[in-house]
Task: inverse folding
């Protein structure tokens, strides 16, 4: 075969092959795209689980002692002794301060002596009255003198007791406001006394929640004094009036404080529990917002299913699902931007770094 014939045969083969390629056709771009879309989307999943959901309303409050007073003397005098230290826990009836009491003690001694004399005269008069040696009127006079002497002794003893200032209830005393030797009167504040075993908080709640707040409703309170702690309490009273300007009503709650961790006057953020129920929840990151519609991708085997949701309250990184999912369903929490209805997925375990997007 000559060289010319060989070249013609080669050209013929190339032409035939080219024609066949044109007849069959190159892969269409849409087909390439469809092939790429069938690659599994790596996702992580979470289970739809029941949890306790609380409907709450938040308010701000300042703590105060359920019992709090300024200690003031009941009589004027000079401070003879101070028997407490600032911040000391005292019991009911504990002696805090002594005032000079020389004159009052003498008055008590005198009243006691007069009472003894009046008592003796009255008893002798009763004996003589039995033998008709004394008139009944005289006996009545002696009895009146005896009762008057008893009253004078009680009054003198009360004045003496006023020279000793005692705690009217158990609590924590504040700073000393006077010194030994100081002259005080009934307007002088010696110290303060607060009952801190249980604190009271008062706060305002918007009027639309008036029907929902109830006596005994649980509350939780937090404060910057103890950032790591939450304090629990109960609603103790609800005002019967709504402020016409603020459109709110006052609520008081009691918070146990056995370790005295909370001082009086601390700023607190309070949450009142209006309702508590069991509900289905999913992680917040499983929810995708499309306009006003919330959706999630339920995983059925290796396929993603787009599900529209009705959501409730959000709490602690989870969101309540009112409708759209059932208990035990699996929802995707990663790879959401790449998911579509019917997409094939590959479930990753927690040890695998998540795919973003």
Result:
């Amino acid at each position: 075969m000559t060289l010319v014939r060989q070249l013609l045969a080669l050209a013929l083969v190339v032409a035939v092959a080219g024609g066949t390629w044109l007849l069959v056709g190159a892969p269409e771009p849409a087909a390439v795209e469809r092939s790429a879309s069938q690659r599994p989307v790596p996702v992580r999943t979470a289970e739809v689980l029941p949890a306790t959901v609380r409907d709450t309303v938040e308010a701000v409050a300042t703590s105060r002692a359920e019992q709090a007073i300024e200690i003031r003397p009941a009589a004027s005098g000079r401070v003879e002794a101070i028997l407490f230290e600032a911040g000391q826990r005292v019991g009911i009836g504990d002696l805090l301060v002594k005032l000079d009491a020389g004159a009052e003690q003498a008055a008590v001694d005198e009243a006691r002596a007069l009472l003894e004399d009046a008592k003796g005269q009255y008893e002798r008069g009763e004996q003589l009255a039995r033998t008709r040696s004394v008139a009944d009127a005289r006996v009545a006079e002696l009895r009146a003198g005896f009762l008057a002497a008893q009253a004078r002794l009680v009054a003198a003893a009360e004045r003496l007791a006023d020279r000793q200032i005692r705690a009217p209830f158990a609590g924590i005393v504040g700073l000393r406001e006077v010194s030994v030797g100081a002259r005080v009167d009934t307007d002088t504040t010696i110290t303060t006394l607060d009952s801190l075993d249980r604190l009271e908080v008062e706060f305002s709640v918007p009027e639309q929640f008036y029907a929902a707040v109830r006596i005994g409703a649980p509350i939780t309170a937090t404060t910057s004094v103890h950032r790591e702690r939450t304090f629990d309490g109960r609603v103790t009273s609800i005002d019967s009036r709504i402020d016409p300007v603020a459109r709110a009503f006052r609520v008081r709650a009691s918070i146990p404080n056995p370790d005295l961790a909370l001082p009086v006057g601390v700023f607190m953020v309070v949450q009142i529990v209006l309702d508590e129920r069991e509900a289905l929840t999913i992680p917040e990151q499983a929810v995708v917002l499309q306009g006003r519609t919330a959706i999630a991708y339920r995983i059925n085997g290796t396929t993603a299913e787009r599900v529209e949701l009705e959501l409730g309250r959000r709490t602690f990184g989870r969101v309540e699902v009112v409708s759209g999912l059932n208990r035990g369903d699996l929802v995707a929490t990663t790879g959401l931007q790449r998911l579509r209805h019917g997409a094939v997925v590959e479930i990753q375990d927690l040890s695998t770094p998540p795919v973003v997007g």
Summary: Residues 16-36, 353-357 have pLDDT under 50 and may be disordered. Residues 303 and 316 are 29 Å apart (CA to CA). The longest strand covers residues 49-71. The helical segments are 3-24, 29-37, 102-130, 136-161.
